[in-house]
Design brief:
The protein is an alpha/beta fold and 320 residues long. Helix content is 44%, strand content 10%. The chain has helices spanning 24-35, 71-76, 82-86, 99-121, 133-141, 143-158, 169-172, 176-185, 187-213, 231-236, 273-276, 283-295, 303-307, and strands spanning 5-7, 40-42, 217-222, 250-254, 264-269, 298-301, 310-313. Helix 1 links the parallel strand 1 and strand 2 (40-42). The longest helix is centred in the middle third of the chain and has 27 residues, at 187-213.
Amino acid sequence: MRESGILMPVSSLPGPYGIGCFGKEAFEFVDFLAQAGQKIWQILPLSPTGYGDSPYQSCSAFAGNPYFIDLDTLKEEGLLTAAQLKAEKWGTDPKEVDYGTLYVSRFKVLRTAYAAWRKQCAGLHGCAYYFPDDYYAFTLANEEWLDDYALYMALKAANGMKNWVEWDKPYRLRDRKALAAFAAENEEEIGFWKFVQYKFAAQWQAVKAYANKKDVQILGDIPIYVSADSVDAWVGGALFELDADGGFARVAGCPPDFFCADGQHWGNPLYAWPSSCHWRSNSYCTKRQYSSSSLFSCCTRACAACSCWWRMAASFSSTA
């Protein structure tokens, strides 16, 4: 059976806060698809953008992009005010995303929302903080990646957002005592990154459920490789080709083709295939596919990353 659809990255949806998100415009786009007889909404990766503002260079293969959280929904929940949103800059051109501006304004208002959320939860049921039941359910269901992600992001913030290979050795090599001490001293910061993912997941699931109710399926995108500057590389260990100091002597790329005569230097860590075995049999990759199944109805992968990738020196340079 043939079906048709439209590719529309979430970031390309219209909206008042500098980038497309899971707000009313997302639901209106679903309505448009249904009215036009379209069955598929194809999107790009929902992961946080990294180097080059690319979702294919994300800090996490499992986390969602905080920029996609609808701020008006947070306002309706009493976590933000109209005045707080109006006070921030969101870019000057409604047709372009100003990622530099977003990096400042989005995280500022998300931290404001987080502070208000903690205040709402303070002192409930005789506890210092008692968060909603669905928050605890979310953190429990996703603890395999969420705990490492939140710790990683808190460490990045404490290290001026530097790549993890530039951190002090105890953190770079994941010394248990050093990480436990850091976590104990930075509980609130770690909680912020969990809160962001909690809100992302809740809002996206609402959009996805609405689309499915309208008989529109979500066609997602799973990047094969992870970013060198990511929690996945930081915790991956034997899964990736790393040297003793956690660096990368060789990285992934693509041979010369019609797109780039000199080949492409992707810079992603290489999987240690002899120990990783096969994509489908590897537990890490299986977890990624399972995680994606909760986000999408079905998904695609970059064919070049499977069929014609190659190893190259990390110092290699090309035009792409």
